[in-house]
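Sequence only, no structure available. Ideas?
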Amino acid sequence: MDVVTPGDRKRYRIAVVGAGAIAGGRHMPAVRAHADRVEVVSVVDVDGGRAAAFAAEWGVGRSGTDLAAALAADRPDLVIVCTPPASHRDAVLECLAAGAWVWCEKPPALSLAEYDEMAASERAGGPYVGYVFQHRFGSAARALRRQIADGALGRPLVGVCHTLWYRDDAYYTAPWRGTWASEGGGPTMGHGIHQMDLMLSLLGDWREVRAMMGTLARDVETEDVSVAAVGFESGALVSVVNSVLSPRQESYLRFDFSDATVELSHLYGYDNADWTWTPREGVGEERARSWRPASDVPSSHAAQLGAFLDAMDSGVRPPASGDDGRRSMELITGLYRSAVTGRPVLRSELGPGSPFYERLDGGRRRESDTPARDETEVAR
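Reply:
I predicted one. Tokens follow.
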């Protein structure tokens, strides 16, 4: 991306769609961190009272329940979509058609088919749609990404990517949670996607996945835990676990390179103190010290929003969009397909024509955790 100097930066009008906890808790503080570059001009929510209360709390001039009316009246440059997953596709398509860039909460869509439909509605030079994968944007992840690209740590060999969280039964009283049709999946889709996206942004393209999943303790249609082994094009092998059944919560990533081990332990966000670089025996102390990042920028929505605005200034595709944003959806699709069918899945097998391209459970509502014999049977 071209470097944009402060003098070249533009000021953008923003609309927020969805006035729930994530909008107020994460996105509005991120917007305020860039107050010199953006202004929120409207908020839209299916609940008009909630939209009005949000507007009053955050000093937003207009609120309402009609996205089309807000797009026409306020002509935002950027729309931040903070609604449940089942509504992402329609909101994104409407905003792109109106000429607005879109920053959409995770998971991007309910399927690869929906993701590709949204991508097909973009135009060269913008508007583009990008997705909230804020863990890529902390200074430690940026430093590690450079080190991997430069070969400073040696070859990636072994990895761990574990999202071990806890969500009780009350969490699933929200009617859209825990169903394939409205949430798209369980913790693999809604929770572990952040850690998996960070892993993919570091290690690059994956090649093969072998997975299992179960619904062990929550009364939900989707899984409440999944485990997988993922093989990367580099040859690295990674263990992936996604759980909402873990009382001691942790988001843990570990990457073993030929010259060092790099670890990250956090929960919902990190700074440099949450990372460790451990050199193998024989690596010089001066070289090992050089791996520590020079600055300390926590992972956050504000960090990603800054990168998104830079892309808007330059008229280029933002990070975590297009093919770059699709990799996480591909891995999740492959993981579910492997778990349902009981077979290893190659990334190359996930195009149109597979029932899992259209729906992440392959088109069936799981009544048990018994793998189907083949995809034809799964699709019935």
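Confidence is low (pLDDT under 50) at residues 366-380.
Hope that gets you unstuck.
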